[in-house]
Amino acid sequence: YEIYLHGMTGAVPRLPTDLTRLEELAERRLGPGPVGYVAGSAGTGSTADANRAALHRHRIVPRMLREVDARDLSVEVCGRALPAPLALAPVGVLSIMHPDAEPGAARAAAAQGVPYILSSASSTPMEEVAEAMGDGERWFQLYWAKDREVTRSFLQRAKAAGYTALFVTLDTPLLAWRPRDLDQAYLPFLHGVGTANYFTDPAFRAGLAKPVHEDPNAAVMHFLGMFADPAKTWPDLAFLRENWDGPIVLKGILHPQDALRAAEAGMDGVVVSNHGGRQVAGSVAAADALPRVVEAAADRLTVLFDSGIRTGDDIFKALALGAKSVLVGRPYAYGLGLDGQAGVEHVIRCLLAELDLTLALSGHSRPDTLTADDLIKESV
Ligand code: FNR
């Protein structure tokens, strides 16, 4: 109601409620470096465009007269009851966007009751972010380092800091060809304390010839050398399973066979994602990959979704296609850049309010009653 009451009081929200307008606003206010980092996609941006187009092609078929006065957005994800089917995706180096950085995003998520997935490439050490989260749901995203000791150290630190679920990102064994970053010579990991999780890590520091502050360039090179590892294969997951006793979710799954392999490896869930179109140019749109992965996962895996979510109706569509919850990336990064923690809260509130209204107006009171039958897919 608050959004409509603004009309009575004349109080205009500080940021637009159409979240697709945040990028343009950020471009004007924050400059090309930070916005290029967030907006940037692989190649010509065809995958990011395809993500939006695929969601757009699915259209909701509303139902009438279905008693939708009492609504409940809660869902269960990997055994945890969550108030809504939304989480903040891991986004690295948020100090580029705003001094509130990861602690600001974490506080916003906790205040709005949605989980925050902290990136391995956080500009703030994971222990500090955990504190900022208070009672909020703490999830940790792992870029699976080449060095086992560093990975083990990350897992131990994350556990000690109260992170419950581990999201292992598989689609970034190398950084993709990203023209905006290349053309601007803007390498986010070089940004200040861009890799604080690594630079504060005892196992990482043990591999450096000189302390970070004495030779930061060598530290960055060391980081790039171990950041991820294109030589890994499915059997390597056993190491993570042995070293993490909570839920493990594989992020970046698009092929149904990979979902089957995830289940066989004892994983708890997958995120159907193409990294927001930042990794494989020309990749299948995430929403088009979702139904086949959901089918392969059956009851064995929790399936989450990201890449292209900008509105409440996008969330509705992803849930109707079988996702249990969605993650959102760029919109909250822009919200943070434009208005710090308050900007992230604005983004979460807009998405949840619009989802709630879309559910009600389409004849649903709960996310878990949605099925593919509530959508039709337009032919191109
Ligand atoms: C990301 N993403 C990402 N993923 C991850 O697992 N670890 C990370 O550190 C990052 N960092 C990152 C930085 C920036 C600037 C962006 C935009 C994205 C990917 C992210 O988690 C998510 O998959 C996408 O952002 C989802 O797509 P949308 O919502 O941005 O369209």
From TrEMBL:
Limits of the FMN hydroxy acid dehydrogenase domain: 11-380
Keywords assigned: Oxidoreductase
Needed cofactors: FMN
Homology family: Belongs to the FMN-dependent alpha-hydroxy acid dehydrogenase family.
PANTHER family, alphabetized: FMN-DEPENDENT ALPHA-HYDROXY ACID DEHYDROGENASE PB1A11.03, S -2-HYDROXY-ACID OXIDASE-RELATED
Protein name according to UniProt: Lactate 2-monooxygenase
Protein source organism: Streptomyces mooreae
